[in-house]
Structure prediction request, 460 residues.
Amino acid sequence: MAKPVLIDSHSHIYYEDYSEEFEDMLARAAEAGVKAMLVVGTDIESSRRSVELADKYPQLYAAVGIHPHDADGVTENDFMAVKELALSSPKVVAIGEIGLDFYRDRSPRSEQVRVFRSFLRIASELDLPVVIHDRDAHDEIIECLVQDGAGRGVLHCFSGDAEMAERAVSMGYYISVSGTVTYPSNGALREVVRSTGTDRLLVETDCPYLSPEPFRGRRNEPARALLVAARIAEIKGLDLDDVCRITTKNCHDLFGINVWDNSAKIAYRIRRSIYLNITNRCSNRCVFCAKFDDFTVKGHNLLLDQEPSFEEIMSVVANLEEDIDEFVFCGYGEPLVRLDIVKRVAAELKRRGFRVRINTDGQANLVHGRNVLPELEGLVDSVSVSLNAPDAESYLALSNTPFGAEGYVAVTRFISEAKLYIPSVVATAVTLPGVDIEGCRRVAEALGAEFRVRKYAEVG
Ligand code: SF4
Prediction:
């Protein structure tokens, strides 16, 4: 498997700490897979230095701003200087480090708020995201973001609780996790990581500060972003590779830093499963489907240029067979619209000894005008069918099935009859607001299927 690629979304590598071995430090980062770093200024001088470094090294990007510690006495000239720096290079991708620090209170709070809000407005004017420092000023940060924020940015080295993270995410912001997530006493941050979607997390070192365990107390550096990602992976029950890919994509979306592999994936790995993305066609148009906003799952781009042939699928699969529990026909499309390909690929995978699962909307019998379930016997070990509603009316409203009321009847029949041909049959419902989960559970049980709840907005 290729080495994970990662971005350190917050570093201060312009400090003297690195001057003697700057190139070695960058080489260690590259060796660890840290392919890009955001160098964040905290005053005019360090912002200037960040831009110089970003202009010199292709893997470095810059953020420019003034830290809340230095807010006292910031003048219009200072704002102009930051603006000029922001416009001086295409490698400047954010305004920061800005924010509030009511823990150390090195500048009067009213001054911190004045400067922070001014920078939020400057970022909006320049159409740049913001990198926010927050220490013991959670409510005030949110209040400023409500007043002047444009919903693009990151709360770096997050120190709030899960509720604050949820508020910030609902306003469009990302949560950045530093090495403190590895500290034994920091259960609160691990809870934030647990409850926040991976698609809203970034990884940072904040170096030279906050070295993760087992280097706590020593000078930090970008290569150690990998230790932060590894701890996030552990908390989320994902592979390190997944966290690296997803957070790299998040940096791409937020800062435009482009080291994310966005090639269309026919097959992609999450944990120990390989998902097969063989079509983007669907028999439904579900109101909750994430693909209408973003055609990615866990950092994998699933927007196909064209539907892959049997040979193309098998040649991709051949490189991915190592250390795998199962293959899943899934993706952002309904796999059973390509029934013949599913049967051929599944037969080959079974011949090679793998488990095979299909995630489906359960309308294949209507699509093909016949009962296709007997054709899947012996080829498929498990089928997961999206039920999502306890009755035909709610199903139609949610799925926009082109088959009208018949659609729901077909899904329930599919679930019921699948047991005759497929060993494991699971009906699922997504926790979309308004979905009657308990009603779905009753229907699934009456049909003799297992029932599983899928978290809304968490795909893959
Ligand atoms: S069937 Fe699946 S992929 Fe298709 S629209 Fe519905 S949720 Fe999206």
About this structure: The CA atoms of residues 419 and 425 lie 6 Å apart. The longest strand covers residues 92-101.
